[in-house]
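Troubleshooting: if your tokenizer reports a length mismatch, compare your output against this known-good record of 147 residues.
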Amino acid sequence: MESSTPARVLVVAHRTAATAGLREAVRVRALQSPATFTLLVPRHARGLHRVVDPEDQDDTEARSVLELAIPLLSAAAGTPVAGVIGDPVPLTAIEDALNSGTYDEIIMSTLPTRLSRWLSLDLPSKAAAFGLPVTTVTADEEAFAVG
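Known-good structure output:
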């Protein structure tokens, strides 16, 4: 990568796409060197659809996440952030994004450790197997407290 070419950063998030921690990670990354950002939001399969037909899920929830997060992340990056909706299986969504575009690094935002399915599946390490550096941002527990 030439120094004049901005790094292409794939940001992977769902419920944490608009959190302060992810916005800060994008802001800090944007200050390091020129970069462009794309937010990937995997569709969310619920109930039996996870097994039966996860690819047929409605993307309304993912679209709502993009609508909320894109302006916040764009402000943090100081440049427009693109948004895409991915496969309900997060690793497949990442692989599809990497196959359809060129990226230099990944920022992954997860729920707090005790709530995160992505962390329990070790998604950050699995994503790193694609050969790109992965930065993991774990949301604050208080932001997702129940009750």
